[in-house]
Design goal:
single chain; three-stranded antiparallel β-sheet; Inosine-uridine Nucleoside N-ribohydrolase, Chain A; alpha/beta
Length: 309
């Protein structure tokens, strides 16, 4: 089986944690590097959380700490959704590993330059690190096969009435990435808000060894939905798209990001291509929810079997 080389840029975060567990254990993904950014909680905590997850899964993958704030605006977090630490609900073993001695942007540059084949960037956080990477080292764009990002929305937002969190907290970075010319897939709220784990799936997941216990513990502290009606697995959808794109229906279009005022962070798509002659993004429009739920349960079961493997 040919593996896909991946850099994961993240801000764990409960749904990030589930996404990382699946990505670190998926047989088709070869994770080269994990980079962190402020978002769900501050960058010190997101970095500690990433280290905990890598150790928890028994992996030897470098973690590099990235930007502590957005490019131009004041930082905001989502600790009201993910808890004070970002991953409340499970007592992880003592942390032994350390971050690499390089900023996330520099660490990404090194991985991309040294790679013999193009790398996918799986972006499940604000796009600050990636915008800086392309600004400082535009030559590495040719080494990125595509970016699969969780962010944006074509309908309602989850932070303001129209803006999704990852694009809202650093809209300038998001706009820079959309304008970068690198192939981009936007996995936004139009599909991720439907990608819920119901009590049925959560009960199954609880039985998947330490991985199941960890996920189930985090779920008790997650405010991204309801334990009764379903928890939204936003960031997991980006992993699902990367390895199982048939779960989604997409459309190529042109997307840009509003930068100021009450619409800041809003992703505006020219779905009819009435005002643009070229596209810059494939936007996910629909998801097969039952198949996604089965996929998620199956891959968390696999993660439970492969932990420390």
């Amino acid at each position: 089986m040919t593996q896909i080389p991946v850099i994961i840029d993240t801000d764990p975060g409960i749904d990030d944690a589930v996404a990382l567990v699946i990505a670190l254990s998926h047989p088709r993904l070869a994770v080269q590097l994990i980079t962190t950014v402020s978002g769900n909680v501050d960058v010190v905590q997101t970095t500690n959380n990433a280290l905990k997850l890598v150790e928890f899964m028994g992996k030897k993958i470098a973690v590099a700490k990235g930007c502590a704030r957005p490019l131009l605006i004041e930082p905001e977090d989502a600790s009201d959704i993910h808890g004070e630490t970002g991953m409340d609900g499970y007592a992880f073993p003592g942390q032994q590993s350390k971050v690499v001695d390089a900023h996330a942007v520099e660490a990404m540059r090194r991985v991309l330059e040294q790679s013999d084949e193009p790398v996918v960037i799986l972006a499940i956080a604000a796009l600050t690190n990636i915008a800086l990477l392309f600004s400082l080292y535009p030559e590495v764009k040719s080494k990125v096969s595509k970016i699969v990002m969780m962010g944006g929305t074509l309908s309602r937002g989850n932070t303001t009435s129209a803006a999704e969190f990852n694009t809202y907290v650093d809209p300038h970075a998001a706009q820079m990435v959309f304008q970068s010319g690198v192939p981009l897939v936007m996995v936004g709220l139009d599909v991720t808000s439907k990608a819920v784990l119901t009590p049925k799936e959560m009960t199954q997941i609880k039985t998947f060894g330490e991985v199941g216990e960890m996920c189930y513990g985090l779920f008790q502290h997650y405010r991204g939905g309801s334990l009764k009606t379903g928890l939204k697995m936003h960031d997991v959808c980006a992993v699902a798209y990367l390895v199982s794109p048939d779960l989604f229906r997409t459309q190529d279009t042109f997307v840009e990001v509003a930068l100021e005022g009450p619409a800041a962070g809003v992703t505006v798509a020219d779905l009819k291509m009435a005002y643009h002659s070229v596209t810059n993004c494939a936007v996910c429009l629909e998801i097969d929810v039952p198949l996604f739920q089965n996929w998620l349960v199956e891959h968390l079961a696999l993660a439970g079997e492969k932990q420390y493997g």
